[in-house]
Each structure stands twice: as structure tokens, then as C-alpha cells.
Amino acid sequence: MAKNVSLSTLQKVSGHFKTVMEHRREVRRCCFACGLYYQGLTHDLSKYSVQEFSESVKYFQGWRSPYDAERELYGYAPGWLHHKGRNRHHWEYWYDMQKGAYRPIKMPYRYLVESCCDRIAASKVYLKEKYTPASPLEYFLSRPARNYMHPETAAGIEEILRDVAENGEEAAFARIREKLKKQPGHR
After folding, report:
1. 2 lies in a domain?
2. One pLDDT digit (tens) per residue for the chain, 187 residues
3. Which end of the chain is more exposed for a tag (fewer CB within 10 A), N or C?
């Protein structure tokens, strides 16, 4: 989609809905390949809520997250605030008060894996034919967000995305399945 094209409301609704469906389908494929079936099925369901869907349609452009456009205009994105507070695969969810200050909490491995699946899917959806297996890692390394995550969370995400970049999804996801089997409470 061209960057400076004005879209009708119907185009924004259908475009955003299509983007969310495509993204969820790709996350589901990745999560299933890793053995995270429930998370694959329930990933990003909050995107269909009134709070998130209406904000995303309003700022839909087709080539990047609507939250980025909203953030540029207002300095924050209400839809994103709703989303990150309801989805454990976002590192921002894992912040809490500890010893008088807000600090990052180590993300449980299953959500860390879902986060990587989310990053892979988002890269594929937005980059389309420009996507390479290194794209999610390059994006991750180019953003300062990793400096605000729990150090073990940031290292775990980088490790998985590097594995995907260097060895491909099939090999990386096989290693994740084996590691998940060893996690407490994994079925």
C-alpha cells in the first residue's frame, strides 16, 4: 500500500481486519510449530475489542502499525495501552513495582516464545516480499526496547530470533519444542 494514499473508512476497516487476520494466522502457524497450541489460538484476540479495533482502524495505513501513526500525532496510543496490558507476549506487560520502583520482570518462556512468533509474523505481514529470516532479528536489534526488558527476556528473544535467522524456522522451532517440554507445567 502506498504511504501517502488517503483511504476511505471502509478501506481502513477491511484493510485492518485483513492485516489482523493475516498476522494472527502467521502467529498461529509459528506457535503451533513450537507446540504452543492454546497461545496460537488465542493470540491477540483483544485486537477485536472496541478499544483496540476502533483506534487501529482510525490510524490504519497498511504499511506499519496504526499505533505508530497515533503515537506520532499524540505522543501515546490508547489502543496500544489497552493491548499491551492484556497480552502477556508483550514485554511491556511484565513491569511491576519492586522495591519502590517499576522494574522489568523476567518473561516466562512460553510468552517469550509467543513474542518471537509475534515478531516473525509482524515482519512477514509488513515487509511482505522483502522479508528474510533475519528481518525479525534486525528489527529487534535496531530498537531500544531491548534495553528496557528484563535482561534474560531480551537475551532469550535475541537467541531465538538469531536461531531463526541463522538456521531457519524449522530447526529453531524444533529446539523450542524440546525446551518447552522441559518447562514446569508444560503438557
Report:
1. no
2. 556 568 999 999 999 999 999 999 999 999 999 999 999 999 999 999 999 999 999 999 988 899 999 999 999 999 999 999 999 999 999 999 999 999 999 999 999 999 999 999 999 999 999 999 999 999 999 999 999 999 999 999 999 999 999 999 999 999 999 999 998 766 5
3. C
153 within some domain: yes
Tell me if 186 is assigned to some domain: no
DSSP string, 38-83: HHHHHTTGGGGSHHHHHHHHHT--SSS-HHHHHHHHHSS-HHHHHH
Residue 3 counted as domain residue? no
3-state secondary structure of 96: strand
Range of the domain at 80: 9-181
N- to C-terminal Cα separation, the chain = 42
Q: How many domains does the chain have?
A: 1
CB atoms within 10 A of CB 139: 15
